[in-house]
Design goal:
By secondary structure, the protein is an alpha/beta fold. It is built from 8 helices and 6 strands. Helix 1 crosses helix 6.
């Protein structure tokens, strides 16, 4: 199957596209879009990769699956399109950013495209979801695909910052060599867990310090 994805990622992930599991996944996702409402829009499934080429990745943030309500998901984890109410987890991310950088994030919309364009790979573990049904496309093959993307970054690149929030993201990060990359872990920023250690984690400051120490431009969060 011909997948529309940024060329540097295509080269890295071609073995996945050629595999049997990806053919089954493609069939499943195609049928899902034909027979039900699925998010994000089909043209945005690989938006995280298209916005942040393999060689440009500086930071990786791992989410679980796309938002499942109308108008929210557009292919970047934690991000929603302009005009959509900022979701609770992102509200808490903005609270932590405001505390770290002493800036007012209260008027920000939820669109994180400007992060992706600076080298922040906003990667959900599962890239599609049925409307109104969180986790509905888990276990179909997406996790294998996104594991391969994370492993490729961990093995072929150096000095990337991986922000792993919550137990699910930490499991996805088990292949990362901590000697080559900075791995920062904290509870998930959701209202259920943010007060257990996400607030005060200083991950955004620490990420920028690490990038600068290795000759890279910091992220304008």
């Amino acid at each position: 199957m011909q997948v529309r994805i940024e060329e540097s990622w295509r080269r890295v992930l071609q073995p996945q596209f050629d595999s049997a599991y990806f053919e089954l996944l493609t069939d499943y996702v195609r049928r899902a879009y034909q027979t039900s409402v699925v998010y994000p829009p089909a043209g945005k499934i690989f938006e995280a990769f298209n916005r942040t080429p393999f060689d440009k990745v500086k930071v990786v943030i791992i989410g679980q699956d796309p938002y499942h309500e109308p108008g929210q998901a557009h292919g970047l984890c934690f991000s929603v399109q302009p005009g959509v109410q900022v979701p609770p987890s992102l509200v808490n991310i903005y609270k932590e950013l405001a505390d770290e950088f002493h800036l007012d994030y209260s008027r920000r919309n939820g669109d994180l495209t400007h992060w992706a364009d600076q080298g922040v790979l906003l990667l959900n573990a599962t890239l599609t979801v049925q409307a109104g049904m969180a986790g509905s496309h888990q276990g179909k093959g997406w996790e294998t695909f996104t594991d391969a993307a994370i492993e490729a970054l961990a093995r072929q690149r150096e000095h990337i910052v991986f922000l792993l929030w919550g137990s699910y993201a930490r499991q996805k990060g088990r292949v990362i060599d901590r000697r080559r990359h900075l791995v920062l872990e904290a509870p998930h920023p959701s209202p259920l867990s943010a007060y257990r250690g996400f607030f005060g984690c200083r991950h955004f400051l620490l990420a920028n310090e690490y990038l600068q120490q290795h000759g890279q431009e910091p992220i304008i969060w």
